[in-house]
Amino acid sequence: MPEPSDSDLLLAIAAGPGALPEFYRRHVAKIVGFGVRRFADPEDVADFVADVFVEVLAGAHRFDPRRGTALGWLYGLAGNIAAATLRRRARADEMVQRLSGRAALDSDDFDRVEAQIDAASELRTTYQALLGLSEDDRRLIELVAVDGLSPAAAARALGVSAVAGRVRLTRARQRLRAALAASGHPDPTHSPATSEDCDEIHQPS
Q1: How far is CA 21 from CA 95, 153, 196, in A?
Q2: pLDDT for 145-197, tens place per residue?
Q3: I need a surface site. Which of 2, 22, 137, 201 has the fewest CB within 10 A?
Q4: pTM: predicted TM-score of the whole model, two decimal places
Q5: Fold of 1-105
Q6: What is the DSSP string of 27-88?
Q7: Where in the chain is the domain with CATH 1.10.10.10?
Q8: What is the CATH architecture of 116-205?
Q9: How far apart are CA 71 and CA 106, in angstroms?
Q10: Cβ atoms 10, 63 nearer than 8 A
């Protein structure tokens, strides 16, 4: 019997949980890597991985193989969960800061906080700009700029041709640069195409 594809497993999971262990085995390392590039605490990574596969079980019925690959669907799901988690954390941190008040900080503390704010400013600005992009644009930029995939590999993960992925990535970067222009931040997503990318882009899709 041929081994079921990832798409076959997701369609099976939609009918019942029996195929989930095999899908988990195939992709847990990818999702752990996805998590460690976004969260600094091992417990947060573990919670993130658990949340992703719980959502795989709950949401597999939404997977449509006509719209993209199973891996692209999984990366999109993971990206949405990570973004939601970071947004919740940002809101919680903001509330803690408001409740703690200035009385809890002395002058040395303020200096350290200001230094940390300055150091994180570009990342914060970039992240907010990313959240303003469409879901497809954000997924593509995250796969290239955060997860280190080549543009061609990111396109494959999202179920589009290398040419379409390259065009979409160029347009997404233009939108991101426009969102960052007022703050004077450079485009953080730029990564020169490798020869492998260029070779693949010129192959027929």
Answers
A1: 39, 26, 34
A2: 878 888 988 888 888 888 988 998 998 888 888 877 765 655 554 544 443 34
A3: 2
A4: 0.58
A5: Rna Polymerase Sigma Factor; Chain: A (1.10.1740)
A6: HHHHHHHHHHTT-SSHHHHHHHHHHHHHHHHHHGGG--TTSS-HHHHHHHHHHHHHHHHHHH
A7: 116-205
A8: Orthogonal Bundle (1.10)
A9: 49
A10: yes
